[in-house]
């Protein structure tokens, strides 16, 4: 899993994650939006 935070924030910030399975992401699954392939984007959650 690779996660890139683009703006740190007290509630998680914004960033991208690259994983094979959405359940492997570090934040709650509902915080993530699927972009394409195995790339996910998240905002504060």
Description:
With 45 residues, the protein is mainly beta. It has one domain. It is 0% helix and 44% strand. The chain is globular and about 25 Å long. It starts with a strand and ends with a strand. The mean pLDDT is 76.
Give me the secondary-structure topology.
Blueprint: E1 2-7, E2 14-18, E3 32-36, E4 39-42
Antiparallel strand pairs: 1-2, 2-4, 3-4
Pick out the low-confidence regions. none
The main pleated sheet reads as: 4 strands, antiparallel
Mean pLDDT: 76
Separation, N- and C-terminal Cα atoms: 19 Å
Query: Whole-number radius of gyration?
Result: 9 Å
Strand content: 35-45%
Counted beta strands: 4
Share of residues in helices: under 10%
Secondary-structure element pattern, one letter each: EEEE
Number of domains: 1
Shape designation: globular
Which structural class best describes the helix and strand composition?
mainly beta
Our count of helices gives: 0
Cross-sheet strand order for the largest sheet: 1-2-4-3
């Amino acid at each position: 899993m690779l996660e890139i935070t683009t703006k740190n924030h007290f509630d998680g910030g914004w960033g991208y994650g690259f994983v094979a399975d959405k359940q492997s992401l570090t934040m709650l699954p509902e915080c993530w939006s699927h972009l394409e392939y195995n790339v996910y984007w998240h905002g504060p959650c």
